[in-house]
Amino acid sequence: MATPKNVHDCDLVETAADFVAYLALLAEDIEPQEQARHAAIAAGTYVAYLDDDPNDGWKNPTVSSFLDAWASWLATRSQLDPRWERHDTVAPSWRALAQQLSAARTYE
User: Fold this and answer.
1) Which positions fall inside the DUF7660 domain (predicted)?
2) Is 13 helix (H, G, I), strand (E, B) or coil?
3) pTM of the model
């Protein structure tokens, strides 16, 4: 398989190197939104609900909201798919980790 080229390529992640590349893509993808948020805060024009812009792809732009969404997505996933529970003792693949991070970007 090919190395991921954008944040939607989480299914291409197979190796640790692919996962590192995918993490770099996520960081690159959120950077413009972070810069805009910091500029708005500095200008006194920041409005938190505007972070939920459906056009930017990131519903969870802060570390805390992102980690909360990741945990919520995992909890919901295990409730919706009984087979998911069987895999709790198996180490996740690099692809599974990339898929989870991708889901956490937009999970509400």
Assistant:
1) 16-108
2) coil
3) 0.73
